[in-house]
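Replying to the earlier thread about multi-chain prediction with a worked example.

Input:
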Amino acid sequence: MKVIAHPDEAHAQISHWRNSGARIGLVPTMGALHEGHLTLAKRSKAECDYTVVTIFVNPTQFGPNEDLSRYPRTLEADLAGLRDVQVDMVFTPTPEMLYPAGFSTYVEPPASANPLEGQCRPGHFRGVTTVVMKLFQILPATIAYFGQKDYQQLTVIKRMVEDLNVPIRVEGCPTIRESDGLAMSSRNRYLDAEQRQRALSLWHALQAAKQLYESGERNVHILEQAMARELLQRGAEKIDYARVVDSQTLETIDTIDDEAVALIACFVGKTRLIDNLVLSNSDSH
Amino acid sequence: MKVIAHPDEAHAQISHWRNSGARIGLVPTMGALHEGHLTLAKRSKAECDYTVVTIFVNPTQFGPNEDLSRYPRTLEADLAGLRDVQVDMVFTPTPEMLYPAGFSTYVEPPASANPLEGQCRPGHFRGVTTVVMKLFQILPATIAYFGQKDYQQLTVIKRMVEDLNVPIRVEGCPTIRESDGLAMSSRNRYLDAEQRQRALSLWHALQAAKQLYESGERNVHILEQAMARELLQRGAEKIDYARVVDSQTLETIDTIDDEAVALIACFVGKTRLIDNLVLSNSDSH
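Result:
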């Protein structure tokens, strides 16, 4: 497994592989890897000839009062996990390599970045689209894999790729959960045992919405009320949002006609957690 | 010579050429081709295995009161000229192909886009960086050629490519001029005979700055005054700017220490013309 920090060197390696006709799978991460990330890498391994994982805690997607400095950094463990999965390359640039002096070009994200996380975390998606665009140029993969746990991020990246004609296919992969339903997240490391229990409130709130939906309820307001009630009863402390919106555009809807998605962001202690569930007539979700 | 309108088809052709190890030269244009454009195509022909010219009047780089609707469109003549130069492919997408419904991702240009044209034409460079980034994804060339006539555009694109790690080399090529000094421009077609004479004011103003510079003058204010005087005396009607700035950052300077560039934008009749001249100790400019 090659571990490469320099963008030029990483680009040269990928180009070499691509020129031989190989399919390259790319898994961008911020490290602090868990089973969700490793599942993305395994899917890439199954579908591509070479698999590249990036580990970069991207400063431009953190707000001034967010957890950039305390974000977990576990490089040695991450590399061990990726070696087990037999990833071919890990790209580990420094912030100075990706944002040198004078850096000032950004990718302004599509309209689907405006609600939800866009409201709560101004500038977050601009940082995400910018770094992902950079990674897509440095590492011209065939397919890039992202988790559906960051549903809005996946939606934004898919639209960016379409709008800017990036020749990479973006695949969303199902959220990986603990046995009790908690979505795996690097930020779960912040939780103590008592908070870990309260963190289940997101899963239970999504299940409440799902049960209502499956019983025929299509009124978004009723679903959202149920989620908020469940969250607060089970110990979520500050709800940033608990919404049901159009699954493609993330726009507000009153009634579910087509596919919708329930999305939650809330705090447990100082830890901000997100989760989501697609509400669809098909059983595929 | 292949003439291809659809982005997917153009991408497939370029990818095919690249996979064979060929060097691809790209010349993005808005059509209404003149000797300046053809010189770019010839340089690409000399340096690359395949040369691709794009013809697309990009709506997102025109302001609401600018000349988008009356911008000259001369496709048949353009194709004839490119056939003579033996270009390999011409990419001629429609606005609907590059900006489909729901399009909403833009490339926010670097800081060098803020002064000069950025002040006079708000949003112009955002349109330029966005369409150029799209073209760079659709047509992953080895080298892209741009004229130095659009000096600030060239500066902005070079920085964008660096900031977003685009794996394409950007080459600036010297401005091609008529025998009397007028910089070739698609917009020169708008000029009647009397305006054509007054359009020379830009060239004479740049020469005035150059002569002062070569006589040892390094005070930017004096050079700018000389340019403005020359412009008005020779019939320029409205000066958007006549500035001498740092040649790399385009930032304001008082005294020329390193390399500087004199840049002019002004109107002759309803036609907005731009031109520039690098002021450098070397003789290469």
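The two ends of chain A are 34 Å apart (CA to CA).

Feel free to reuse this layout for your own posts.
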